[in-house]
Every structure is written in C-alpha cells, then in structure tokens.
C-alpha cells in the first residue's frame, strides 16, 4: 500500500516485494515467478509510492504522451471536462530522515513504448521530443475504481478557436505534473490539467497545484522531475 | 683604481645581482602561485555557469596573461627596463602572427566552436571519418575518443571547414537492418514476425512508425529492409538487441536465413559410383 513502510512480503502487480531487516540493515528483494529480479542492500525505511512511468526500462525523457482511445471534439469557444487514466509505476523509496532515494521501480505494465512528438530535426531552437507513449481511456464521469498501475486525472479542454478542435493526444511534462496518493491504499491521482487550444496546431497545458482528490499526499519528487518554481505549464507545439 | 677597489666593486655588483635575482624569483614564485589560485577560482566559477570547455579555456587564457604580467612586473621591479617590450612586442607580434597563423586560425575556430556549441564534450560525433565521444574542446584541438578507445585530436579548423556529424543533437535516430529469407519461405509471415518483435521492443518508437519492406530479390534470397526510429541515447543498444531478436524470432518460426548458394544443373544424368 502506498506510503506505508514495507514490512511483510507484498504483491505488486506481477512481482513480490520482500524486505528483510537484519539489525540496522535492510535487504530488499523483488521477485518475479520466484526469481530475484532486483536486490538492494540499504539502511532506512522502505516505502512504496506511485511514480511517473518514465523510469522503466530506463530514464530517457520526462515527457509522457497520452493518446486517447477516443478523440475529443471540442466545440468552438467552448470547454469540455473529462477524466482519464494516467499510467504509473511503483517506486520503492528508501528514507533516512528527510533524505530519500529510489532504489527500485516496479513496472506495472506489459509494454513500455516511446514515441517522437514533433519532427526528428531541429528548427532553430525548436525541435520534437521523445516522450513515453501510452494509450489511455477517457471518461465523462468519474470512474468508481482505479486499477493498480493507473492514477486518475482530470482534464479540462478549452477551445479558443472559432471552429471545432479535435484532441486526440496530450503531452504531459512530469516536472509540473504531480502525483498524489491515498495513504494506505493503492489509489492515486494527479492535479487538474487544463489544455487551452490556442491555434490549429498548438496548445498550452497548465497544471494546478492541488490534487483532484482531497486528503491525498504528494509524492517526494525525484531529482529529474523536480517541480518548477514558477511556471506550471508546458506547450504542445506539434499538434494535439 | 686599485686592484682592491675593483674586487670590492665586483663583490658589490655580485651581491646586487644576487639580490635582484632573489627578488625576481620571489615575485615570479608568488605570482605563479596567485595565478594558479585565480585560475582555479575562475575554473570553478565558470564551470558552474557555462560549459566545461569554455570554463577550462577561459581560465587557461587568464592564467597565461597573469603569468606574462608577473614576469613583466618582476623584470620591472628588478630594474630591467621593460619599455622596450612594447616596440619589440610589435615586431614580435608580426613575426609570431605569421609563424603561428595555422595555430591562430585553429584558436579562432575553437572559440567559434565553443560559442556556437557545434560540438560539446560528451556528445557523439563523426569528424573526418572518425566517430566517437568528444572528450575535450580545446582552443586548438578537439579530442575524440573513438569507439575502440583511441583518443584522436582533430584540428578545430578541420571541424569548421569539413563535415561534422553530431549524433547527440538528433532528437531521434533511424537505424536500418537488412535481412534475407529464402525464396521458399513465406515473406508475409516473416513480415508479421519482424513487426511483432518491433512492436514489443520498448525503444522502437511508435512514431515515426517502423518501416518493413522487401527491398531486393537477391540471388540467394528475398532481402527485407527494416527501418526503425529510436531515442539517440539507446540507438547502439537497440541496434544490437533488435538484430539478435529478429534473427531469433525468424529462426524460431522456422524461417531460413539463406546464405549465398548456386544450384548447378547437369544436362545428363550423373552416375555416381
């Protein structure tokens, strides 16, 4: 369960996570089909927390491109709000006081893919970027249950154009994006994400600071995705 | 002047010279120490704010200017007239300028490289048919560690004037494979198997989509070309991994990867005894 110290062996997706405390030291093991896939010796308190799906198989980018199963048609000068699932992995944090380190990422999905958003070459200072690719479902009503491996997100699409805008994908930046979790459960969510469609090919993605579910706690952000100090927004320059 | 006076004068002169030498050496030693401290301070200060190459070269330039200043000051204090340096320096400048023309052109090419950031330390480049990682961009040379571990130095003018491939600047890299299957095997089945391998590989980008097509009907088999895009950081690993996986998947499915062979037909039936 998110936030709790790992004590007895725990099943996380396809894996079994085992922690042996030997004196002050901790032996962490992750098994798949009784075969050890990851083994770490550390000292401190180990906790499971939801994590952006950008660290497995290795960290390449902090961007996530969510392609919707169903496109969203937003009327001119109008708004549309919906929920969607953001895929997540589970991170194993080792805490010592206020310091922490992620010692393992437990992958929860069978397939991990990347994609190029934008062109492969540069146009002056602008270029495409590599993003973690995921296909996700959108809902007009808040889903009752969220499976392990996904967190709930709320999307508001604002169309500033004088014609219909079709939103089929959403580029998220893990830095302004935040994941919040419910202590002692597998539930997690993000903040509200607002997409403003500003032209036929560009959109602005803004991130609020508060979680969409009250009482949820923010995860400790790893160094690669530390929250920005000022601007909680990112741009989609190559279509939406 | 008596012999005694001459000896006294020589003695006085010697002690004066020794004194001047000691002063000169002291000033130079102290000056060099201060120059080194200033160089290190600048190196630390600039490293935190700009690229390592610029920090290293600017601090080195400051160090040499300080050294020159220290020597001139030390000579001045010890009583040697340094005003002649100005005139001599003018002539020397012309002579040195002509003599060091290739060196200076490299120097300015190096400065241009640093400002333009055409190549930076840590990037994977190919210059003059030498591919590898850039380890240093100095004012005169750029040093590249080739993939087989050899350090090569390329003059900066060569980089400016020649063709430089910078693989690290690419947002995504395309890699290409050529596979052959025998004529008796099902090409569509091979296509499906290869596509499946590509779809399951995390580093094969979804977009631009992989390209698989029959590119040649060869003497010994059907040539299939596979083109995929991948993040540049993992291009080499992906290239190694994918070829192995495709070969394994095709072999597991019973698809034969042919080798060059010639069928020889005889007009008459051969009698083998």
From TrEMBL, chain A:
UniProt cross-references to InterPro entries, sorted A to Z: DUF432
Protein name, per record: DUF432 domain-containing protein
From TrEMBL, chain B:
Transmembrane spans: 17-40, 61-80, 86-109
Pfam families in the record: MS_channel_2nd, MS_channel_3rd
SUPFAM superfamilies to which the protein is assigned, alphabetical: Mechanosensitive channel protein MscS (YggB), C-terminal domain, Mechanosensitive channel protein MscS (YggB), transmembrane region, Sm-like ribonucleoproteins
Entry keyword set: Cell membrane, Membrane, Transmembrane, Transmembrane helix
Keyword Membrane listed: yes
Membrane topology: Multi-pass membrane protein
Compartments reported by the entry: Cell membrane
Annotated GO MF terms: mechanosensitive monoatomic ion channel activity
GO CC terms in record: plasma membrane
Keyword check for Kinase: no
UniProt domain Mechanosensitive ion channel MscS: residue ranges: 103-169
Annotated ranges, domain Mechanosensitive ion channel MscS C-terminal: 175-257
Main location: membrane
Highest taxon listed in the record's lineage: Archaea
Similarity section: Belongs to the MscS (TC 1.A.23) family.
Protein name: Mechanosensitive ion channel family protein
Biological source species: Ignisphaera aggregans
């Amino acid at each position: 369960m998110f936030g709790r110290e790992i004590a007895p062996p725990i099943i996380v997706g396809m894996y079994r996570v085992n922690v042996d405390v030997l004196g002050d030291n901790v032996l962490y093991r992750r098994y798949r089909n009784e075969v050890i896939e990851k083994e770490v010796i550390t000292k401190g308190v180990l906790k499971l927390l939801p994590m952006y799906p950008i660290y497995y198989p290795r960290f390449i980018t902090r961007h996530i491109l969510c392609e919707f199963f169903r496109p969203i048609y937003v009327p001119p000068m109008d708004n549309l709000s919906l929920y969607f699932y953001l895929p997540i992995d589970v991170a194993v944090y080792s805490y010592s006081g206020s310091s922490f380190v992620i010692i393992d990422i437990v992958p929860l999905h069978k397939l991990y893919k990347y994609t190029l958003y934008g062109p492969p070459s540069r146009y002056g200072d602008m270029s495409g970027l590599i993003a973690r690719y995921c296909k996700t479902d959108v809902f007009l009503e808040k889903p009752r249950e969220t499976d392990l491996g996904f967190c709930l997100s709320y999307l508001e699409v604002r169309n500033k154009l004088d014609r219909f805008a079709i939103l089929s994908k959403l580029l998220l930046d893990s830095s302004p994006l935040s994941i919040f979790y419910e202590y002692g459960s597998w539930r997690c969510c993000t903040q509200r994400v607002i997409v403003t469609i500003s032209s036929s090919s560009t959109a602005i993605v803004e991130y609020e600071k508060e979680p969409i579910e009250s009482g949820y706690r923010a995860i400790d952000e790893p160094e690669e995705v530390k929250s920005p100090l000022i601007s909680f927004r990112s741009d989609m320059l190559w279509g939406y | 002047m008596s012999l005694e006076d001459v000896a006294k004068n020589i003695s006085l002169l010697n002690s004066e010279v020794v004194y001047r030498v000691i002063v000169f050496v002291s000033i130079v030693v102290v000056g060099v120490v201060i120059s080194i401290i200033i160089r290190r301070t600048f190196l630390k200060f600039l490293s935190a704010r700009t690229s390592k190459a610029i920090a290293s070269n600017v601090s080195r330039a400051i160090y040499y200017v300080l050294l020159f200043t220290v020597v001139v000051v030390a000579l001045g204090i010890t009583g040697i007239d340094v005003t002649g340096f100005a005139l001599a320096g003018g002539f020397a400048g012309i002579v040195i300028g002509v003599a060091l023309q290739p060196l200076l052109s490299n120097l300015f090419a190096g400065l241009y490289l640093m400002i333009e950031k055409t190549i930076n330390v840590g990037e994977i480049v190919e210059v003059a048919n030498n591919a590898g990682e850039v380890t240093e961009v100095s004012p005169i040379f750029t040093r590249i560690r080739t993939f087989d571990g050899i350090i090569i130095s390329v003059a900066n003018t060569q980089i400016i004037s020649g063709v430089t491939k910078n693989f690290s600047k690419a947002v995504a890299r395309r890699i290409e494979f050529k596979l052959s299957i025998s004529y008796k095997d099902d090409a569509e089945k091979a296509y499906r198997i290869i596509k499946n391998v590509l779809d399951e590989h995390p580093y094969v980008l979804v977009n631009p989509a992989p390209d698989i097509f029959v590119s040649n009907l060869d003497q010994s088999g059907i040539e299939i070309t596979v083109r995929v895009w991948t993040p540049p950081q993992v291009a080499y690993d992906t290239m190694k991994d994918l070829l192995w996986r495709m070969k394994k998947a095709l072999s597991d499915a019973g698809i034969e990867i042919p080798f060059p062979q010639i069928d020889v037909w005889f007009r008459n039936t051969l009698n083998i005894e």
